[in-house]
Amino acid sequence: MKNTGILFFPAFDWSLGETHPEREERLLYTQEQLFEEGILDLPQIKQFAPGMAPLTKALLAQAVFPSPEHHDLDAHLIAAGSTLILGDALAKGQIQNGFALVRPPGHHAGATVLGNRGFCTLNNEAILVNHLRAEYGYQRIAIVDTDVHHGDGTQDIFYHDPNVLFISLHQDGRTLYPGSGFVEEKGGPNAWGMNVDIPLPPGTGDEGILYALEEWVLPRLQAFKPDIVINSAGQDNHFTDPLASMNVSARGYGRITERLKPDLAVLEGGYSIEDALPYVNLAILLALAGEDYSGVVEAKRPTRPEVPLSQIKPYIQELKREYDQVQANWLWRAEASLPGGYWAYIPRTIYYDTEGFQEMRYDRVRQCSHCGGTVYIESRRPPFHTRHALVRVPFAACPECRQAGYDLWEYLIGRMESVTFQDQPGNVVQFWHISKGVKVFGPSDPRP
Amino acid sequence: MSQVGIDVGGTFTDAVLLTEGVITKKTKVPTQENLLLTLLNALDQLDVAGKELEHITVSTTLVTNGILQRRLPEGKVYLLPGSGMKMESFAWPIPYEVLSGEIDYRGREVVQPNDLEWYRAAQQWKKERESNLVTIVGKFSHRNKIHEERLATVFRQADPQAHIALGHDWGQANFYRRSLTAYLNLTSTELFTQFASGLEQAVAQRGIRAPIMVLKADGGVLPLSRIRPVETVYSGPAASVLGAMAQTDASSFVVVDIGGTTTDLGIVLSNSPLLSSRGAQIGPFATLVRSLAVRSVPVGGDSAVIRQGKELSLARYRLGPAFCLGGPVPTPTDAMCYLGLVPFGDRQKAGAALASLMQPQELAQTAQHILQMVAERIAQEIESLEKEWREEPAYKIWGVLHPHEALQLHVWASGGCASGLKTYLEERLHTKVRIGRYPEVSNAIGAALARPTFSCTLHLDTVLRRFRIEETGEQGIWEGSKRPHLEVDTFLEQVALRLAAAQGIDLRDAQKEEFDFFPIVQEFKTVGQIVRGALHVPPGVRGRIS
Ligand SMILES: [Zn+2]
Ligand SMILES: [Zn+2]
């Protein structure tokens, strides 16, 4: 039995459109199930009330362009804020683990935010991780993403962070949105090996995903020895999910939770609103609380063909071999306009499916053997020519990278439309906009 | 017109006669083992025989005590839990038997019952039963009662004398609580009915024709004949909250009713007592009985003060009245008496009591220290109650953007020794403490002036064409449109009017909750809606004491 916190925030008055998967109805039956089971009456379960995250908290993890005011962030700030409330309860020892059962989700929202993508705008787990590091001094944090989609946003945010291990288990990107998450994506140059993507074939069921967990994820976690483990607990691996093609059951999710033992689980996707969510959420919550979840049985039975374990085993073994063999290959160069040192240059594009546009990204990270290195990201949204920049001084930055960050921030002001400067060790974000000047978001900003 | 209010407490029973908002008579009689005799004694003291009265309202501990002292008859419990959480995850204070059949969260049948198993269970019961009381509760029966009703039929076929309670009559979610609530209500029915008919007869013999009302845990009243027995639990704390409301013009405050061994707390916000977000807990039984958000703190004027080494502490029990009133041990009342804060007691005895705890030269200091401890314990509980209210979960964006404001609530204190604690509570809580004019009969005033509460909560599924009413457990067919709007408003009003008329309740003060509309989507098309809405008459008082 574990003292388990639950923060249930179904956002019953919020949707991305009447028939959109992310709609009012999404957690309605989960509420019916949890309330009817009376799970909140279990002595070890404590319910927490939702709250709104201060914008500072979000900006310490993500840059919002062209400016935060440009977006309607209320719902997203409540989902993130609710996650923080559970994080605080955990850090203060009021609970032993917790489940942020909140909407909207966040794991497709990356380091730069130009709009909603994959139903996400703010990344709840990333905001939580940086909050825990800034407020409580946690150093090593692992995020295990068990949503069926690749957690590309979370990966993007922590790709250069040597103190955050990100592991994503998902349906192979060749067969599913967002099309990324292959074994080659092992982390940035200063955080090589801190990113693990495990693409699984469609049809993988309980045994297959548990095999990957036992043989790969858990040993990797053990080697990393995190202070805290966060589970992006998406539920779209379920055998009834309309957007994906996997075969995991509610009890399978219970077993994943039981083995992974996350300190905090945060709901991500999962769009089988009737046939999966009431059961999967119940199983996860029971597993966290140390209760028997073996009685949780869906009304529907699986109908998809399941990839047998005998086929999954060699597939995963091969995948792991490939992962181990991937070699880093970075192009380092000094750039006249950038502070001293060598910088890796990583250009890329990011597709925003909700509104249908592309973001052009020019990512740079400063080579450093002492810290994660200064991160400099330039962002554009063609056909517009305006440019936006994110400069990040990472947690535990060395003095040189810290100085490089400050130099870069001062240099970029006036050269872009807006610049976000994340001073993570200082727990301060500064935002400059061409028509509004500089705004400082400090740690002392009150939580509204 | 005159009203009578009677509040049965653990030690004393208070009664008042009110005429046009003025207390024309009040009395206090000892609570006896026989509740009926106690009530009649109080009535006789008020001298109301043959008088024209509007009503007599009683708040009784009959059912609460029956449950807590395990004096209720036993009955068999049959549960249909289907899949989900294990039964063993909860501590069940009663034995039960599990039968087949499963309904899901929208009220669809998932697993059909095994008819043979059901039949055998009924036959077995018929052979071995100790009483004719049978409780049948299915998981999600508040969404679809079909299994409960069919199983009831099987039991009635086995024995037409079976007295059966069904879970869906308590139409709120929570299978565990619904099971226990249905069971408690069924097993307390006989006890309550006997009491009710005894009271009715005795009142009639005194030539009083006024209706007898009973106070409920939620602060509302219902006629003796209409009330569900288990709803009468914990009406005492509700009476103190209402009593406070009847004696003040303030609209928001904390109620502190300081008794002999316990202090009851409640909150009034904008003229409505705060309702608890969960049902009442009666000993080991978690129920769905709606109740006010009240707390009982095990401390009062008669709490024994104990010395352990150099430290003083307050016991959670009472060993008798205060030493200064002839009791056996020192109590907070002795401290008040010694400091001259209350107009009763033998000050010399009070001093002797305090001297038994500390050096004689420290008596005043000791007395103050004791009262600070009492104030501290009460204050902590007040703060936790306020915190619970402020941190009530919200499920909508709107609720998070419009949180409960942090209010500086003043305290309204009642009870025999309220005046003795006034300054200590003020000091500790940094807020004003007011004391009513009739602290000793405050609860009886609350009972006399309590008004009926009403609530009608609709849950409608236009795709499955079913509606349910939470408070009565009514389930029916929806014949309206798939995407109703104004239609559902009218529907709720009609149901509410029908229910209110049956209970003789005036809906003019009813408050309507904002409807929740959930579009139901299948294959990317909206096929209908789930609609939730409610209408309430919150607890309150009919008038104020002048
Ligand atoms: Zn997903
Ligand atoms: Zn560095």
Question: Please, could you describe this protein's structure?
Answer:
The complex is a heterodimer of chains A (448) and B (546). By secondary structure, chain A is an alpha/beta fold. Chain A is built from 10 helices and 18 strands. Chain A has helices at 28-37, 55-59, 74-91, 124-136, 152-158, 206-224, 250-260, 277-288, 309-325, 399-412; strands at 4-9, 45-47, 63-64, 97-102, 112-113, 141-145, 164-171, 195-200, 228-233, 264-267, 332-333, 343-352, 357-366, 375-380, 387-393, 418-423, 428-433, 437-441. In chain A, helix 1 packs across helix 8 (277-288), helix 6 (206-224) packs parallel to helix 7 and helix 6 (206-224) packs parallel to helix 9. In chain B, the strands form 7 sheets. In chain B, strands 3-2-1-4-11-12 form a 6-stranded mixed β-sheet, sandwiched between helices. In chain B, strands 13, 14, 15, 18, 21 and 22 form a 6-stranded mixed β-sheet that branches. In chain B, strands 23, 24, 25, 26, 27 and 28 form a 6-stranded antiparallel β-sheet that branches. In chain B, strand 14 (263-269) and strand 15 form a beta hairpin. By secondary structure, chain B is α/β, with parallel strands linked by helices. Chain B is globular. The chains are: A alpha/beta (448), B alpha/beta (546). One zinc ion binds at residues 147-149, 234, 236, 268-269 of chain A. One zinc ion binds next to helix 10 of chain A.
